[in-house]
């Protein structure tokens, strides 16, 4: 399946949140995430890959998002694990919900697999494939991430 | 409402509120970008297509890479002959607790690379590659010149690309790095050993491979260290343990979801893999599947049901698929792997001794397919 205009329109509507959410999870800045989202979809438009399926396109989008985010963080020497910026809580017009904010507050190594698990319904193997981590590492990160998230939620009386 | 549902709801609400760009604007931007490229090309008095641009980019990168290679090779030291002295096997058995790979090393399935690269506080030696054709393992030694770091971190993680030279030069954005953790040496304080799972697709006999370490992380340090350490080698014949590969060319295995055809089975030292293919003609798409992408979704759903119900039976012992998650099916337009236009998928099972087994078959419900 080539990326024709018709396919692109369908893919964009279906996966725009997927790409934006992955980018925001990495960079935690709305403007940077929007720029990265734009770059990812422009890459898709210029991509000559013959996609095998919708899942293939989605995995490609997530993988390219992760790569561009890593490059972005590397270029900026930006601390992806710095404490959650007050900007998210105060300056943004639309703030993330409490649960999303708890996930965003986790270290990158936990929040990205957790996001893919919760939001994308990705299995351990799929997370391993798009992040390049061994499955055992993903399992451990999901376990520890959920434990840390659970502590935050209990503090806020979610449970 | 479950945590998962609530999380999805909150992420969607946030993303919907933040979206500024539309698909139409992106199409316009792409068109403008294309026009800018065209203007630039015309000003330069030549016309180049996408492939040539990639080559131009590759040529530029090769200039840089050549410089990097010169640096790397100038730094190549005659490192300890780790593998030759039998230390490699010992390393896998004692440090990595990996008996399978230790046995392979002792059988002579390894290739010494012994290349060294340094950057900042790191000296990273790519010592050898071992394993089998489907599961190559790269062995690194990492020396860290920082006592504060080494004194409080017993584990270290390398994040690296393993790619063919062509993919590394021209298509890096399409691939991701892989991570593997390593452990501190028992006696040398600033030395870590890492067994890195390389990408089997690119490590094949005679083909140039590029390994590029991009991040080094410590167990108790949040921020990774970004580096760019490159190694290049080509695997000689016999460097990795072969796998048993049996071609069946399309033996039918009926299932409740339709007929699947066994293309080939691979029995490696670490796992067993069965590859199937199937046609899709005659499927009418209705309801939620009546979209350009609907056929893929429907076939994937049927495949998921098929693979989860499949078992590998070896001399009466049943093995279920060993990996969590789903295999993503793909369509082969070229006809290289089977009939043109058919879909393909594979199922992974634990490693078995296929050579010694008397009888091997696949079971799907009441249906059985004997493969040995």
Task: Give the low-pLDDT segments of chain B.
Answer: 37-85
Q: Please tell me the CATH architecture of the largest domain in chain A by its name.
A: Orthogonal Bundle
> What is the chains' assembly state?
heterodimer
Continuous helix count of chain B: 8
Percentage beta strand of chain A:
under 5%
Structural class of chain A: mainly alpha
**Largest sheet entry of chain A:** none
Largest sheet of chain B: 8 strands, antiparallel
Average per-residue pLDDT of chain B, rounded, comes to 79
Q: Round the Cα radius of gyration of chain B to an integer and report it.
A: 25 Å
Can you tell me about this structure?
- The complex is a heterodimer of chains A (159) and B (372).
- Chain A has 159 residues and is mainly α.
- Chain A contains 8 helices and no strands.
- The longest helix of chain A is centred in the first third of the chain and has 23 residues, at 5-27.
- Chain A starts with a helix and ends with a helix.
- Chain B has 372 residues and is α+β, with helices and mostly antiparallel strands.
- Chain B has 2 domains: 75-234, Immunoglobulin-like (Sandwich); 244-370, Immunoglobulin-like (Sandwich).
- Chain B has 8 helices and 17 strands.
- In chain B, helix 4 (87-95) packs antiparallel against helix 5 (99-106).
- The N and C termini of chain B lie far apart (50 Å).
- The model of chain B is unreliable at 37-85 (pLDDT under 50).
- Classes of the chains: A mainly alpha (159), B alpha+beta (372).
- The interface between A and B is large, with 72 and 55 residues.
